[in-house]
Amino acid sequence: MVDVGYFALCFALVPAGYAVYASIIGALRNQQQLVRSGENAAFSVFGLLSIAILALWYAILTHDFSLAYVSENTSRAMPIQYLIASLWGGQNGSIMFWGWMISIYMTAVLFINRYRYRDLMPYVTAVLAGYSLFFILLNLYAADPFVRLPFAPEDGNGLNPILQHPYMAIHPPMLYLGYVGFSVPFSFAMASLITRQRGDSWIHTTRIWTMITWMF
Q: Is 191 exposed, middle or buried (0-12, 13-18, 19+ CB in 10 A)?
């Protein structure tokens, strides 16, 4: 499962980069098939990152201390809620969780607006996929959560005692849902600037996303 998760993270790099390229080139050349292929690539980023997240969670819940991240942030004595929360309890896992949240928002935006704002959506896709690309690169080259230790210790260090609080299970996800969610109105604003759309129809769409993320 660890290898599956790592390779899923690696493979996610390709569709994320392709989504940026295909969306921009498709928009400039007015090739809707290329734009659609960029959107499909963005959907696959969500699928691959979901596999990577589930693989890391599996390693945490099965106490696979051969992973440095699991060894540093969990222990056998930790209750289940803190084991689940340890996914975002350390830097490497937190960064991957952040990137996964971006892919969730990206998938939702593309699905809801699949037949709307066709002049804007290629650039919305490119901006959101660019975010995903950045976080995937960050995980692969600076904060890899799938690094293995030379040997597997009997037990891990456990989650930082400061973070062992019931709100740890909900605070970071809610925080990320708020922070990451504002990438949606930003991507629409950038698309509007790039295409020089002076209408305000897209603002009505982003108002909903802004209110949801502001609530979190």
A: buried
3-state secondary structure of 120: coil
Would you state the structure tokens that stand for residue 180, as one six-digit string?
């990451």
- The residues near 166 (Cβ < 8 Å, ≥ 6 apart) are 81
Q: How far apart are CA 205 and CA 35, in angstroms?
A: 21
In the predicted model, what is the mean pLDDT of residues 87-110? 94
Cβ pair 112, 125 in contact under 8 A: no
Structural tokens at position 140: 């692969």
Quickly list H helices, the chain. Answer: 2-28, 32-61, 68-73, 80-85, 91-112, 121-141, 171-181, 183-195, 201-215
- What confidence score (pLDDT) does residue 161 get? 79
Residue 53 has pLDDT above 90, yes or no: yes
Average pLDDT of the residues in 152-177: 84
Q: DSSP characters for 144-174?
A: -TTPBPSS--SS---S-GGG-SGGGGTHHHH
117: left (phi over 0), alpha (psi -120 to 50) or beta: left
Calpha distance 165→195 (Å, rounded): 47
Distances (CA, A) of 23 to 17, 29, 101, 135, 168: 10, 10, 21, 19, 38
Range of lowest pLDDT (30-39, 75-84, 180-189): 75-84
Q: Burial code of 51-88, b = ≥16 C-beta within 10 A, e = fewer?
A: bbbebbbebbeebbbbbbbbbbbbbeebeeebbbbbbb
